[in-house]
Amino acid sequence: MVQGLTGREGSFHGVRNRDYGTQVVAGVTPGKGGQEVEGIPIFDTVAEAVAEAGANTTMVFVPARFATDAVYEGIDAGVHTVICIAEGLPAHEMLRVYNYIRPKGVTMLGPNCPGALSPGKANVGIIPAEIFREGSVGLVSRSGTLTYQIGHELTQLGLGNSTIVGIGGDPVVGSSFIDVLTEFEADDETEIVVMVGEIGGAEEEKAAAFIQAEMSKPVVAYIAGFTAPPGKTMGHAGAIISGTSGTAQAKKEALEACGVRVGTTPTEVAQLAAEVAGVRN
Amino acid sequence: MDLYEYQGKELFRRFGIAVSEGRLVTSPEEARTAAQELGGQVVVKAQVLTGGRGKAGGIKLAEGPEDAEQHARDILGLDIRGHVVRKLWIEAASEIEREYYLSLTFDRGEKKALFMFTKEGGVDIEEVAAERPEALAKLHVDPLEGFQAYQARRLIYGAGIEDEGEQKQIAKLAARLYTAFVECDAMLCEVNPLIVTPSGEVKALDSKFTVDDNALYKHPDIAEMRDLDAYPPEERAAREKDVTYVKLDGEVGVLGNGAGLVMSTLDVVALAGGQPANFCDLGGGGDAEGVVDALEIISADPQVKSILFNIFGGITRCDEVARGILQALERLTIEEPIVVRLDGTNAEEGRALLKEAAPPNLHVEPTMLDAARRAVELAP
Description:
The structure holds two protein chains of two kinds.
Chain A: E1 2-3, H1 8-20, E2 27-28, E3 36-37, E4 40-43, H2 46-53, E5 57-60, H3 64-76, E6 81-84, H4 91-101, E7 107-109, E8 115-118, E9 122-125, E10 134-141, H5 145-156, E11 161-166, H6 177-186, E12 192-198, H7 203-214, E13 219-224, H8 248-257, E14 261-263, H9 266-280
Parallel strand pairs in A: 1-2, 1-5, 2-4, 5-6, 6-7, 10-11, 10-12, 12-13, 13-14
Antiparallel strand pairs in A: 3-4, 8-9, 8-11
Helix pairs in contact in A: 3-4, 5-9, 6-7, 7-8
Chain B: E1 2-3, H1 5-14, E2 22-25, H2 28-38, E3 42-46, E4 59-62, H3 65-75, E5 79-80, E6 83-84, E7 88-92, E8 98-107, E9 112-118, H4 125-131, E10 136-141, H5 149-159, H6 164-183, E11 186-196, E12 202-204, E13 208-211, H7 220-223, H8 233-241, E14 244-247, E15 252-256, H9 259-271, E16 278-281, H10 288-299, E17 306-313, H11 318-331, E18 338-344, H12 347-357, E19 362-364, H13 368-377
Helix pairs in contact in B: 2-3, 5-6, 8-10, 10-11, 11-12
């Protein structure tokens, strides 16, 4: 289901996802119930979309000011997976959403994320599927276009992806690197993982310890923002060095200390992945 | 958005947190008048969006109006860590018996608000945390539960506050600080020092207040507090045109689409031996008009010697970006070489458009790495 399917971007990507093979069974726009977008029925509420069309996942495409409400509406209607493409949600609102959904076991990607793509299977979000091909590399990232860049580099080296997951660039997002790494570790189709982090927060450092302690599959990493000055928000609301914490250098060192190799450019991290894949094949 | 001390104190006052009376002034004469009105000793405090004001000579005690005027003359125009002092806060001087530290931060890792409280105020909190962690009371607040009275007690007992009058005032103040933090969508509220006067009154002697940019639409009164003069001219122009731009110190202007890709591009420029002049994200749409606006801002920076476009089209269409570049070259005078790398959605159409128009200072490169190297070469 797409919340905001009647909007310009919502309809463009919702229909694209459907054409890729994802079952897009409903759209929700209050006041537009009964209409349809290229054959996809629109409902006034998420509850109706769940009851009548059987939706179990929602993609939130509404403007930031209405996104928190949309997310709560989805969860309260029983949806268990939320992909929030919307960006610019107030951090305090997301703090409450996070603490609300975790005990319920709801999976959420974003806000400010490009969604998830399993090449050849399904696409929920805005990731341009044509860049990626099927394969065994799991890719998890806080950024959209940087993920496409690295996916493109992997493709050129003959590597494909099992699943690409964008967790989002906001200070508080629904899923952490560790959540996604756990899924990749359990996923039979994933053999290697590429993790793409950036400045701000400490999720990469936590992931480093997790990789060392819990993961049997090899992980290589890339961190963006070595040249970012402290105290400046670099595009993503979450990409900010606060005082001395959250620097790219600290993240790189934490990862390397846990045995994770870190590429200095997108090209190099793809080469590292290829090296690991070569050893394994 | 970071607020000045006087703005943070204004918000504190609204939420019932005790602060001293003061006046905002911009000239020595006004400082004199303010001191007269306030009476007695006053403190002349530089208003800048950075720390270390005291050490830099930006805070001075004045005996009276004449003294205040003299200090104001000395402090106005002072450069404190790259911030020029244009405003002063003249405040009635407080007698200080004890100095504490109280703060609330947005703990991204724990996904909760974090209180920190210690009797060792007026010093660097990171130092206290590292050297004497037992002196620092820390406490997380669940955003759905809110701040409860027992948590205030834990802070007070944890930090070792024994005086009953202080305990009561601090408990109330902490609850009010939490309310201010949540209701203003703050990312940080710091009171350092929180003082106790000889008569036992507890009040906030300083304020550090940061508000979430993404929540400013809910707080038009706070949004208005933004002081555009505190930003470099390029950033000011970018804000007016709604371009995401951060000024840096180098000579290679950088534009890309998506925050992560642009950060990565800056790093690659540095690896190629150059220094990026800015961060500039065209964002998701990246229409031709947006490209023209961004190019105008980047090329206005006199330090820029070459400009690097790194576009990976997803939602953004490369042909649209190419049109924007060509339009910008028609409308603006840009003499610096422009290096363009286009990949992804409609990249071939975009490259064809650039090739056809072939402006003399335009260079098209096949990969991100090649483009970065070229841009660095062309920025002597």
